[in-house]
Structure to design on (87 residues):
């Protein structure tokens, strides 16, 4: 069942902390090719794949007029919607 959970549901159930989410967003913004990010409790998410899979985030990141804050929010949204693996 853990494979079916999103980062958002794990955050809501306090398995993943807001600080971990913020660290994941920061890691992606520092290196958009970033791959595996390890959250607590052994959850792993390929950040680059998660953001690439979320079309609105891809568009925002490609938009030269988008602010840094908006881009950060869109990356966070993509990560929240993503489904990590356990391991």
């Amino acid at each position: 069942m853990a494979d079916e959970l999103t980062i958002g549901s794990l955050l809501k159930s306090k398995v993943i902390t807001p600080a971990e989410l913020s660290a994941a967003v920061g890691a992606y913004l520092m290196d958009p090719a970033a791959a595996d990010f390890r959250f607590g409790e052994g959850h792993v998410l390929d950040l680059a794949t998660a953001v690439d899979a979320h079309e609105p985030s891809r568009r925002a990141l490609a938009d030269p007029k988008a602010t840094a804050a908006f881009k950060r929010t869109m990356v966070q949204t993509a990560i929240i919607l993503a489904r990590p693996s356990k391991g």
Remarks:
- The two ends are 13 Å apart (CA to CA).
- The chain has one domain: 2-86.
- The first helix runs from residue 7 to 12.
- Strands lie at 36-38, 43-46, 85-86.
